[in-house]
Amino acid sequence: MPSAPATAPLRIDAATGLLAGARQVLSPNFDARPAGTPPTLLVADVHPYFKEIEGLVASAHALIRRDGQIVQYVPFGERAWHAGKSDYQGRSGCNDFSIGIELEGADGTPYTEPQYDALVALVATLLAAYPSLSSAAITGHSDIAPGRKTDPWQVFDWPRFRTLLKERLVSGQGSSRS
């Protein structure tokens, strides 16, 4: 099932944590977040060669393909295993309190317009659905695991992403939780 275009409103089902309009390919590699630990951080990850990581005990909440299609692997309220050994502002174990969004890409290859559009739509939806999240707490894998991870690499245009997100939030195009 193809995902909804990035311009279409996305919705997160409050009971299941699933994103309506996304292709669902649920991973067995997740578990419950620690009790009383809502998501407070969004992490942009990249895995360019999914065949190479097949069989690893890892997961992400969602993947945004080069064409902008969103694939969801783990319900957003659950703990995906995407960050590994990590630390954000002195708090370790980022899997416990983060949502991991993978971008399909490769080092040195710029991300596509549909990927930015889908990422902005998804992040706006997550911010609307989870009041514990903030647009100020969005970071890259390289920032939570320095020296170990380098993604989303220099080709990810953080200023562009933040400008697009701000424009979407100001225009009220954030989506909702049902």
* Radius of gyration using CA atoms only: 15 Å
Question: What CATH architecture would you give?
Answer: 3-Layer(aba) Sandwich
Q: What share of the residues lie within helices?
A: 10-25%
Q: What letter string, H or E per element, gives the SSE order?
A: EEEEEHEEEEEEHEHHE
Q: In the CATH hierarchy, what is the class?
A: Alpha Beta
Total of DSSP H or I helical runs spanning 4+ residues: 4
> How many strands appear in the DSSP assignment?
13
Report on this model:
With 178 residues, the protein is an alpha/beta fold. 21% of the residues lie in helices and 21% in strands. The protein has one domain: Peptidoglycan recognition protein-like (Lysozyme-like), CATH 3.40.80. The strands form four sheets. A six-stranded mixed β-sheet has the order 3-7-6-11-5-12. It has a three-stranded mixed β-sheet with strand order 2-1-13, covered by helices on one side. The longest helix has 17 residues, at 113-129. The two termini are 20 Å apart.
Concise overview:
The chain has about 180 residues and is α/β, with parallel strands linked by helices.
Please write out the topology.
Elements: E1 11-12, E2 19-20, E3 23-24, E4 30-31, E5 41-46, H1 50-53, E6 62-64, E7 70-72, E8 79-80, E9 87-88, E10 91-92, E11 98-103, H2 113-129, E12 138-140, H3 141-144, H4 158-170, E13 176-177
Parallel strand pairs: 1-13, 3-7, 5-11, 5-12, 6-11
Antiparallel strand pairs: 1-2, 4-8, 6-7, 9-10
